[in-house]
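Record filed below.
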Amino acid sequence: MDRLDARVPQISPHRPFRESLATFGALARSGFQRYITYRQATIAGSFTNIVFGFLRCYVLLAVAAGADGGRPAGYDAAQLTTFVWVGQGLLTVVALWGWTELADRIRSGEVTADLLRPVHPVIGYLAPDLGRAGHAMLFRFVPPVVVGLIFFDPYLPGRWFTGPLFAVSVLLAVVGSMGVRFLVNATAYWLHDARGPLILWTLAAGVLAGLYFPLRFLPDWLAVTLWVATPFPGFLQTPLDVLIERDPPPVQVALVGLQACWAVALLALCALVQRRAERRLVAQGG
């Protein structure tokens, strides 16, 4: 009987980049394979997103119909339609809430096993999350977008670079969201129970990310403050504004650049918090 190949890619001092990339890819594939097994949950989640998509779309279309000139905050009806349906698809891709794996492992003490692995904990959680986002992009993003195309008249991008820029923006949104979720979960290192911070994150994320309504509906000074001083608009608002070409090309690129800055800053902060936490880590029960 042939033996199974159970080798795990290790980081080699002779080929560190190649082996590190192979390890990262293996972790990302594991995240994809983990979520592809939840078929019924995927179908039920897509159906729920579609139902709420109809509700949100008709509400925003009513707002557009009652606005002067039919363009509230500079959005026309077609742009708002795309904003809603693509936003419903991105909701699961970006995953604003529902992830408590790190906090649960800290509370149980299992996080000590993460420190023995030859992969930094931040990378060890980021790579599978990118695999999860890839699964969501295929099976949770596509159905709402298709429904929106069938039942409504959405806005379709007209600039050749909008598609690639949107893809980069979505990737940065996933990385940034993972960074904040990691930080919120990491509060369990000090609190031992992160349910309080997780509830605050759940309440704030949807509003500040632009899930319920475009942030441009807010006063200009408040919207600009949220964009510059917080990473939240980069999770949904920025990718959606890029896709519907709400701004001129230079502003589109600048918004994605701001996303990139926040993604790098959040990953660096995650690494710093993890290093500080390891100095005072106490495994409960032993």
Observations:
- The chain has twelve helices and no strands.
- Residues 18-279 form one domain.
- The two ends are 42 Å apart (CA to CA).
